[in-house]
Amino acid sequence: MLIEWIEALVLGVVQGVTEFLPVSSDGHLLVTQQFFSWLTGVDRGGAANIFRDVMLHLGTTAAILYHYRGPIRLGIRGLLSDDPDVGPDFRRPKVMHVVLLALVATLPLVPFALFLKKWVDSLFESDVAAPIGFLISAAVLALVSFKMRGPDGHGRGPSETTWVDALVIGSAQMLAPLPGVSRSGTTIVAALLLGLSRVWAVRFSLMIAVPAVLGAVANELKDAIKHPEELGLAADNVAQTLVAMVLAGLVGYMAILWLIRVVRSGKMWYFSVYLVLLAAVVLGLVSAKGGRSGGDASPNALDGPSRRSDVRTPAATGPDGPRSPVDRPDSPLP
Fold first, then answer.
1. Over the chain (334 residues), what is each successive 10-residue block's mean pLDDT?
2. I need a surface site. Which of 153, 175, 230, 318 has the fewest CB within 10 A?
3. Cα 216 to the chain's mean position, in Å?
4. Domain annotation covers residue 322
5. Which domain does 114 fall in, by range?
6. Residue among 260, 323, 268 nearest 67 (CA)
7. What pLDDT shows up at residue 41?
8. Which residues contact 266 (CB under 8 A, 6 or more apart)?
9. Which residues pair with 156 in a beta bridge?
10. How many structural domains is the chain composed of?
């Protein structure tokens, strides 16, 4: 259907614009999906929405790798050889130090993925989770804006960053899966509060996003292979997701350049104001339409109870027995 292609393209643009700006791409994607669900009356289900979200994140991860292709190439050369043409910042000891920092920052996500994933997935069925997350992100950005007043000082760079710093920043990244909470916002804010320079704070935030997203993609692909019917993976759906993923990568590359300029200027409070206004609008629409707080609700935030469920929504049981609500799209409503 044409509306499905329009939705895919809109989601690709939304993901590309919001992934790197401190406004929460997950929250914007959730609100956008809920809007199209209300518009079409088709409930695709939480599992299908999360799968598309993760694949869109893969597109913006490619934008990170492309933007930093030069430093990545030099780092690999310095790591694998003693090439004298490689600058001192890309020699083996410094590259190993940065890799270790990234690994330490990723560690907090492991217990989160093991024990809290189902709870986080259930939040994507909620009408109010995203706007509440927007308000949390707005408060964090407003807080750090006071610290960033004036020109950028002599903050710490990669060599001065410790594993404790990396662990704190990685712990801030644990909030990223919550809808409405900005991953780039929380990690950059944590890095700045620890005294890292603005340029290094952005670079490290983007760096640790790569293993986090690749892990989420691997997990979603595993589920897609086991239960493709739950994700509505027909040929058209796959094509729409792939096109949206490419579009997200192209738009995301431009958003990285914008993010760097914004952080250097110290004007992140602009996004705080935007998030407060957005949260107010979404909460107003949810209240007017009769919103729900999650759990067994379907993700039609702007329309109250689902008008009808799409034929792609599976039954409540599968080949391995009953599945919990967060492991499958919602069952059809009467």
1. 88 91 85 84 66 84 91 87 78 90 89 71 77 90 74 78 94 83 88 89 90 79 66 69 92 90 81 92 83 44 34 42 39 34
2. 153
3. 10
4. no
5. 2-299
6. 260
7. 77
8. 145, 148, 149, 150, 151, 152, 198
9. 196
10. 1
Helix (H, G, I), strand (E, B) or coil at 297: coil
DSSP secondary structure letter of residue 319: T
- Is 306 inside a domain boundary? no
In terms of Cα–Cα distance, which of 176, 192, 195 is closest to 184?
176
Check residue 11 and give its pLDDT.
93
Q: How many CB atoms lie within 10 A of CB 302?
A: 18
**What pLDDT sits at residue 291?**
55
DSSP state string for 214-238: HHHHHHHHHHHHH-GGGGT--HHHH
Q: Which amino acid is at 302?
A: L
- Inside any domain, residue 326: no
For every residue of 178-220, DSSP letters joined together read STT--HHHHHHHHHHHTTB-HHHHHHHHHHHHHHHHHHHHHHH
What is the predicted pLDDT for the residue at 113?
67
* Helix intervals (H) in 19-45: 25-40
pLDDT for position 243: 92
**pLDDT value of position 266:** 74
- In whole angstroms, give the CA distance from residue 185 to residue 231: 30
Question: How confident is the model at residue 330, as a pLDDT?
Answer: 38
- The dihedral region occupied by 294, where left means phi > 0, alpha psi between -120 and 50, and beta the remainder, is left
Task: Give the tokens for residue 39.
Answer: 């518009």
Q: Are 46 and 329 in contact (CB under 8 A)?
A: yes
Contacts of 303 (CB under 8 A, 6+ apart): 37, 38, 41, 289
Q: How many Å apart are CA 207 and CA 216, to the nearest integer?
A: 15
The DSSP bridge partners found for residue 321 are 318
The angle formed by the CA atoms of residues 248, 250 and 252, to the nearest 5 degrees, is 60
State the chain's maximal CA–CA distance in angstroms.
Answer: 70
Give the pLDDT score at 49: 67
Bridge-partner residues for 318, per DSSP?
Answer: 321
Cα 309 to Cα 206: distance, rounded to the nearest angstrom: 38
Q: What are phi and psi of 322, to 5 degrees?
A: -60, 145
Structural domain includes residue 324: no
